[in-house]
Amino acid sequence: MKAIVNIYLKEGVLDPQGKAVHHALGSLGFREVEDVRVGKQIILKLRDGLSDQEAKEEVEQMCEKLLANTVIEDYDIELVR
Amino acid sequence: MKAIVNIYLKEGVLDPQGKAVHHALGSLGFREVEDVRVGKQIILKLRDGLSDQEAKEEVEQMCEKLLANTVIEDYDIELVR
What we know:
- The structure is a homodimer.
- The first copy, chain A, is α+β, with helices and mostly antiparallel strands.
- Chain A has a single domain, classed as 2-Layer Sandwich (Mth169, Chain: A).
- Helices cover about 35% and strands about 35% of the residues of chain A.
- Chain A has helices at about 15-25, 50-65; strands at about 1-10, 35-45, 75-80.
- In chain A, strands 2-1-3 form a three-stranded antiparallel sheet.
- The longest helix of chain A has 16 residues, at about 50-65.
- At the A-B interface, helix 1, strand 2 and helix 2 of A face helix 1, strand 2 and helix 2 of B.
- Strand 2 of chain A pairs antiparallel with strand 2 of chain B.
């Protein structure tokens, strides 16, 4: 089973990396872009035999304790069999 | 319209950041994790009025030219209205 965790800055938190990418895209001539936000995607391979419920709770714990900085970041979790 | 671009290391490319996260999760007692890969998720807000086809081609160009290092990284693009 795999868990895909997307971690992104909360609305309103300044994203300098996104700003830099936006600027660089503009310099390259991509004028259609209005905003850029850069986040992380973490793919966890979990051992087989976990139920969806167990896996979700476990990955939530991982996010709260290590993967995300919940002061400035939000996350969502998707499970894939 | 938004384009969500996921960028991840190709199979077989060593992921030291993933290894570090894996190790840290182990230290915290999360033993169910067998592997960790860390990638990027870039969310692009595009101006309205682009067709799906145009947006896709444009974002592919951005990935090839700037966002992804296609020697070691793959990417996928998802459009959200």
